[in-house]
Amino acid sequence: MAMTKKNVDLTADLGFLKLRNPILAASGTFGYGLEFEPYLDLEKLGGFVVKGLYYKPREGNPPPRLVETASGLINAIGLPGIGVEAFSEKVLPKLRRLKTAVIVNVCGADDDEYAAVVEYLDKQDGIAAYELNISCPNVKTEGLCPALSPRTTFDLVKRIKAASRRPLITKLSPNVTSIVEIAKAAEEAGTDAIALVNTFLAMALDLETRRPKLANIYGGLSGPAIKPIALRMVYQVASRVRVPVIGMGGIMTGTDALEFLVAGAAAVEVGTANFVDPDAALRIVAEIESWCEAHGVAAVRELVGTIKAN
Amino acid sequence: MTIDRNARLREIHNWDDYFQLAIDAPEIGREARPGQFVMVKVADGTFPLLRRPLSIHDAGAGGIELFFKVAGQGTEILSSKKPGDPLDLIGPLGKGFTISEKMTGKRAFCVGGGRGIAPIYFLVRELAAVGAQPTVFYGGRRLVDIPLRDKFEKAGIEIHCSTDDGSHGFAGLVTELVGRERERAKPDIIYACGPDAMMKALASMAAKHRVPAEFSLESLMGCGIGACWGCVHRIKNESGDGWTKICEEGPVFPGERILWP
Q1: Does A302 touch chain B (CB under 8 A)?
Q2: What is the pTM of this model?
């Protein structure tokens, strides 16, 4: 194959953070990043968001934790993790050497724990931003989380923004009546960016045994099955807030990613695709580049929000 | 471990619902150790979405063999592949069975239940290569569930079969057969792969008679590379009795570390 010189400017701009390209690997699908080193060059990603961190180590939910559905995956992992101390001592020194944006997904059982996590991590170098995970459906009963109400979203974002020295990305839940209302609450509280969507509260059952397939009964649906709903929500939010939006939900290809950019996302996260192909995020970068070349697009960020009226 | 997108199905053979695939995948074949697995992409589209974890049945310089029972849509699609079809594999993954030069002359009981026989063939070949003396115990519900018995016999491996319905070999559970044979020929180590109930019974037998044992656990997996935390089992660790990823720290674990449900 002949080598062609590629001239597309792939950089993405979140204002507080410039990215090599608009592709981030999504939290919960990319471990702590290092698991993927055998399969792709982490420095060729826009960046990655590490698995959600609580202050203390956590076990997560009992199995079964996963069930595959039509073009989708329901998970009820329950945010197991090593906690901030082990992360800072064992993982972060390795991530710090990478020339790529490392974003830490921040969790908490209550507001105090979220604050404790960012206060601890603020003392560590090598983190580009925090992604505030107010939207995991698998840690409380029936998917309860702060992102379900504008009030709790506002209060938590305001507190964490004040407590932290780093840019804050607030990750929203799609399991709400009005995603725009929640996004506006996060913006008013001072978030630097909004990421959406987390997984859709879902379930699967086994007809023969008549039991839920997940030990947790409920889980979060991800994968290509949710892409059209996620795209709708990203479009709604991006057209109504001023802060940058990071879009995600079922992105498997460069075309999927480009659609989110056109709908208004300044960058996107690739999630479930990482499970299928550990090098999916870089394939998507290459597909974006090819599409831009073929369509005479000089800079991919020119595409952001260029959706046209019908 | 590598992603081999240029793997190719060389041969496919079946006995009812059980399938054996010979796959050209040289790099994975060279690296593979008994007890490791591959993640197989079964379809190009988004359904089924996830790869399927399958034990490596045999491996060599040219590639690997897989052995599985059709159990759902993924394995159904895989079973319909034709020789020459391209395959997309990630592997070899996970930690396999412990085999060392120190095992020369040692007696190893290798137990496979149903489709759990898959990694046992590769295991006994490698055990024989280090001069150990493997004996295979192969159990199934009926005669059709122990299709690989001839393959072991042809390879000159000592094999004892059992069927629940008595249609071939010992009538009863393979664990009973292992129990009888243990009294006659004391094993130095037990290896097993199969249903949880089988492995649990063997684990307690091994513990009671102080025989080291290793078990290959099975689980649905999201990724196979330690990223999704979907395939956990209770394993005793330095840090406690935690949910441990089968794909990354297993699938083979020492018997004394496994906490059975």
Answers
A1: no
A2: 0.95
